[in-house]
Amino acid sequence: MKPGFMTAQGRGSPKDPGGFVFKSCNVTGFQETYLGRAWGAYSRVIFYRTFMSGIIIPQGWYAWNAIGHEGNITYAESECIGPGSDHSRRVEWERKLSDVELRYFIHMTYIDREGWLNEQPKSIWSYR
């Protein structure tokens, strides 16, 4: 079975403020998978305080549509745990974010910049 991809983020410009942030998540499954592949030359994906099971391919990331432009990609992990969070064989171009950069990306002003979270339907669990 071919490996899967958790993300395929398509940021196409360094001025595009978008990206994917996975904060306090659980990554589990039944198939080997990459954390992400670059759909655009400036792809941005961050995993923060996330449990990663052993399904994560050791390299973690795949440049895909941005091969040769890996320096433009922002793929980062911080404070992740679990067997899939081992960085010893990650791609050399994975970013190590500074504390200031990390705080910016994990803050709700970045994650919910457009207010989309409040537009989601309320679940029955919201009323407890």
UniProtKB/TrEMBL annotation:
Residues 5-111 form the Pectinesterase catalytic domain. GO terms for biological process: cell wall modification; pectin catabolic process. It comes from the Eukaryota. Keywords: Aspartyl esterase, Hydrolase. Its EC number is 3.1.1.11. Belongs to the pectinesterase family. This is pectinesterase. It comes from Musa troglodytarum (fe'i banana).
